[in-house]
Amino acid sequence: MIALCGIIGYIGNQKASEILVKGLKHLEYRGYDSVGVAIANEQGIDIRKDKGMIDDVSINLGFVSMNGHIGLGHNRWATHGAPCKENAHPHFDCTKKIVLVHNGVIENYLRLKEELAAKGHRFVSDTDSEVIAHLMEEQSKTDKPFYAFIKSLKKLKGSYALAVMFADDKEHIYIARKGSPLIIGVGKGEMFCASDIPAMLNYTKTFIPLEDGDVATISKNGYKISDIEGKAVERKSITVDWDLEMAEKGGYPHFMLKEINDQRHFINETIATDVSAAKELVDKCDKIDIVACGTSYHAGLLLSYLLMRKGRNARAYIASDYQFIANPDENTLVIAITQSGETADVLQALKFAKEKKTKIVGITNIVASSITRIADALVYLNAGLEIGVAATKTFMAQLAVAYMLVYPKEKLENVRSIIAGMLEKENEIKEIAAKLKDAHDAFFIGRGISVPIAYEGSLKFKEISYIHSEAYPGGELKHGTLSLIVKGIPLIAIAPDDETAPKLMGNIKETKARGAIVISITDNPEIKKESDYVIELPKIDKDLYPFAEIVPLQLLAYHVSVLRGNNPDKPRNLAKSVTVE
Ligand code: F6R
């Protein structure tokens, strides 16, 4: 089950609704099937919410006409209960004096719901979250808000980032984190809380990421953080130097296109990142297990190939399967690659690894994300915020880090111009996209270190175009898949002029003979002749081909998606950060 959602809270002197609406826009990538805000003022608490995206719902329901200086907002990604007005957050208790927003999954909610229903509580939604409001209502009969809050938390099993307001206590917002991210934003005479930093960046650059088990009370002029028993704990604040422009589209029609183009700008910052502690561990350990999911797994697979070619004992695992097949011990180094730093499958694999006493290297883009608290050594991707749900620039940054763990940094000195050169081919790629847009299936092939790039090209293509696509090492086609290659099927061949070219040429011929339309990404003269469409690769260091190959594949996926009328930034059924297994 997916448990994503975006939370924001504000308390201060400004109009809360305006701040919440702007913040929710930045949190949309975490979920966008329904949205709502709650504002407390002299009249009590007003909730407005509905199915749909922030821009539409906010206008239809007049979010910014709500007056008050304290409020909560929420973008929902349906888990328990369909996307609809009733299931959208915020949720009230029976008295409408307690309101909350929640991200996570309450595993024991059914039992709690039955108990509360037996005591006369009435539920209006199918969500697990609403149960918490009623629990607090029950607890508030005997306790003041803070104690009602922590006593209720103790009854919950599962994960949460929570923010709660009481109509009778308009000076405080109560928040807690367990398994879902939550960060305090520290302003002057105002305080924020949100699922991540961009939602608050308009107002402050100082943040305090809560840790699992933390409970906090925020007020206009301060915050108090404690454990679940109410015992004070100290948490460090961090200051970030991102500006909001980095999180905006910068003139491109979609974040994804901006982020693909961004690759030429930030790559040198990635190359400047400090890999020394991680590299020391890589050099020292006998066995290297790499764990990651989706796009990050493809970067991990490439890293495993680079290490294997150097004679190292390395293997990449899909993180969600790691605990079922791997056998790590104290001599194993586990390298976890996760741009968000919050992917539950990766965190679960690391929990398993930690129990086996492995060393852990974390590679992530997000400062203060969950993985940063687990890893023995960290590498930051320095890719800037990535808003498009489909990972592009963070994949490029992961590739760069993978290479830096195996080769000296100097090897990457031309990567920036390689990427820039490939970006210039956008118009020809757009023309090829027009030929592919009505396809029902597509196949991607490569060999050697181009195989992870074929996998990634195929994933990008299918997830935003919604065209079925598969990727294989070229040699595998004849072992089954060739039966699917019929007239008109697009075959995208990642065919650099390296030692794989002669064999890949054979695979291309096999598919051509069956009527496939061959699109080659190549600098090999023979393969060019055999192909229907060619995207030309530059003549470069053969080890670096993946940096050039991935750019046209990202652009191809993007343009096919747009030509089919999809929104590539928000592919259906997907969200940016997948915080449950
Ligand atoms: C696809 C994509 C996903 C992520 C995967 C892991 O475009 O973005 O496949 O790569 O969900 O996410 P992270 O890297 O945050 O662990």
Summarize the structure in short.
With 581 residues, this protein is α/β, with parallel strands linked by helices. An eight-stranded antiparallel beta sheet has the order 3-2-4-1-10-9-11-14, covered by helices on one side.
Helix share, percent: 25-40%
Strand content: 15-25%
Q: Tell me, briefly, the overall form.
A: globular
Second rung of CATH, namely the architecture of the domain at 6-248: 4-Layer Sandwich
**Main beta-sheet strand count, sense and barrel state:** 8 strands, antiparallel
Radius of gyration: 25 Å
CATH classification, class level of the domain at 6-248: Alpha Beta
Structural class: alpha/beta
Number of helices: 17
Q: Report the uncertain regions.
A: none
Question: What does this molecule look like?
Answer:
With 581 residues, this protein is of the alpha/beta class. It has a domain at 6-248: Glutamine Phosphoribosylpyrophosphate, subunit 1, domain 1 (4-Layer Sandwich), CATH 3.60.20. The protein is 33% helix and 23% strand. It contains 17 helices and 24 strands. The strands form four sheets. It has an eight-stranded antiparallel sheet, covered by helices on one side. A hairpin with a 2-residue loop joins strand 7 and strand 8 (169-178). It is globular and about 80 Å long. The N and C termini lie close together (7 Å). The mean pLDDT is 94. The structure holds fructose -6-phosphate. Residues 293-296, 338-340, 343, 346, 390-391, 459, 463, 577-578 line the site of fructose -6-phosphate.
